[in-house]
Fold CubicO group peptidase (Beta-lactamase class C family).
Amino acid sequence: MKKFLLSLLLSVIVFNISFAQLDKKIDGIIQTEFNNSNDPGGVFLVSKKGKTLYEKAFGKANLELDVNMTPQHVFQIGSMTKQFTAVSILILESQGKLTVNDPISKYIPDYPSGNSITIHHLLTHTSGIKDFTKMKTISEIAQKEMSPKMMVDFFKNEPVDFKPGEKLEYNNSGYVLLGYLIELVSGEKYEDFIRKNIFEKAGMRNSYYASDRKLIKNRAYGYHKKSEGYVNRTIISFSVPFASGSLMSTVEDMVKWQGALNQNIFLKPEQIRKAFTKYKLNNEEEFTYGYGWHLKEINGVSTREHGGSVFGFKSMAVYIPDEDVYVIGLSNCDCHSPTQITKDIARLVLENTKKQQ
């Protein structure tokens, strides 16, 4: 018994040393970019099998009020919104209200070439529709309150960039269209559909459709960096990015999101699997975007990744399914990108996990 207890004690000591070393290495990776406690900052979290291995905040959540960042602060997550939009489409498909192979003309009869563009094309960025963020006239609507239909009308008559399914080209317009379809098919506002069908079911109590008017507890304020110093972020109407980039969340809520996906809270395994499948272009070439996630690899191990960038904020998350490891970083200055940092942390945790196996 004594030998067993001694062995157990030694293994605990070794684990704690290993964990402390990992913690220190993660700190070092983050502090290459987030190294000034008086600047806008960010929050980083690492979880494995649902348990938090690392969670720390850096810098300030509000410069004017001198408020330190905490893990509970709420950030705009930008294009990570696309994950929620894609899963919402699959929820509607599971309810028999649409299929991903439906042409968009089934729901928007007057959409140009709508017979040849499917929901699948929108989900996978292979539609060829003009990305509204690249249109010169975007500044004319950036601060206007736009209905989903107004947003679709804004870009729908633009010349297409290529034929549907011809190639992969990241496209925000496609996800605005998906948000509009969610409203048309469900009979609910996109904001309400996400709240009821995702946030509430996953227990994400600190996640929202973004608003500058509503009082949001623990809101992190967004910043730009100019030659003369930091300035408050440019104000845009959240109705413009809409279903392509207008959600807000915390690192802890995003872990709940990943956990709910793993536990099939929203969809059956065969339904959610569609989001994580690599599809093919018309020429049979495989590409690495599913429905709302980039499907990539770290050291030959499959990952699901996505980032986001919106005025004043940047975000990035990497999930490693084989190890059930989730790494997320959120920043409240678009001058500080968590993208490479998050990838480097994921690689470090993966390598550390492999050593322990």
